[in-house]
Design goal:
single chain, alpha/beta, Rossmann fold, 10 helices, about 40% helix, about 10% strand, globular
Length: about 290
């Protein structure tokens, strides 16, 4: 499918989120330092994860009591660790109020619908905590790179997604967006391990096999997505995910920090801002994101 050049709009000014605590950084400023943690042993990792699971239970009890609606979006390159992160995040959460949605290939009917229509039925109702393992941002990433969408369809998506998300947040949905970022060498290693592990080969697809060859196009698509779709009501949080266990812990901390709830352990939930941080042009220019 032929592709024409599209011109990305200028990025919005870096801004603090109006949902949860301020996490943005002013243009030209240094990203927040946060808490820095040393390398952990396996035992220390399990201990920290267990404590964070207790915090997640506290948070979910609060959300259920308040009738809150939560949507967490996880995006990232192939093999970035989304499945493992979701598994640890939801391990001790209520199965009745917790749902994970992983969008598949659209049906013939969905191909004729308004693009966002296929996602609306999976949005959270009161008391629900929903995680999207990939989301409508497929259009800005894999569909753009693999020519599954036209340039016009991609441009229309980038024009519509911020108003769409603003509508969701203003209606009361608590929206959090995480992008799991890994290096090219780490992705190569993980894809190779998948090919050798019979229990992980189900994860391989033609798209995965093309991931390394398309590294630069994916980087360009990601950067354009960040510039066009981060906004005060739903800023992007970048999670450096080369070290899986560290990434899982810091993602959970950042998520917990973004909510207020009774009995919160503020020291435990303070994230390491060298690992998880709000996207900004400053972070991009300082090479804090893999290229």
């Amino acid at each position: 499918m032929a592709k024409s050049k599209s011109h990305d709009r200028a990025a919005p000014a870096d801004a603090a989120s109006s949902v949860g605590p301020p996490i943005g950084t002013a243009a030209g400023s240094k990203p927040p330092e946060g808490v820095r943690r040393p390398k952990r042993s396996a035992k220390e990792y399990e201990g920290e994860l267990s404590k964070l699971h207790v915090e997640l239970v506290k948070l979910q009890r609060h959300l259920i009591a308040k009738g809150a609606r939560v949507l967490v979006i996880l995006e990232g390159r192939d093999s970035a660790g989304k499945d493992g992160t979701i598994k640890r995040l939801t391990e001790h959460m209520s199965p009745r109020e917790t749902r994970v949605h992983a969008p598949g290939k659209p049906s013939d009917r969905q191909e004729t619908e308004w693009y966002f229509q296929r996602f609306v039925p999976f949005l959270p109702a009161a008391q629900e905590f929903v995680i999207f393992n990939r989301s409508w941002y497929n259009r800005a990433g894999v569909e753009r790179v693999m020519d599954f969408a036209t340039d016009r369809e991609v441009e229309d998506f980038l024009d519509m997604v911020v108003p769409f998300e603003e509508m969701l947040v203003r209606d009361g949905i608590e929206l959090r967006k995480f992008y799991l970022d890994i290096s090219k060498s780490e992705q190569r290693k993980r894809l190779s391990a998948r090919r050798k592990d019979p229990l992980k080969q189900w994860k391989l697809s033609p798209v995965d096999e093309a991931a390394q060859a398309n590294w630069k196009p994916y980087s360009d698509a990601r950067d354009a997505m960040f510039k066009r779709t981060t906004h005060p009501l739903a800023p992007w949080r970048v999670l450096k995910a080369d070290v899986k266990k560290t990434a899982r812990l810091e993602m959970i901390r950042d998520l917990l920090e973004s909510f207020s709830y009774k009995g919160k352990d503020k020291k435990l939930t303070a994230p390491d801002r060298a690992i998880v941080f709000p996207w900004s042009q400053t972070a991009h220019e300082r090479d804090m994101i893999a290229h």
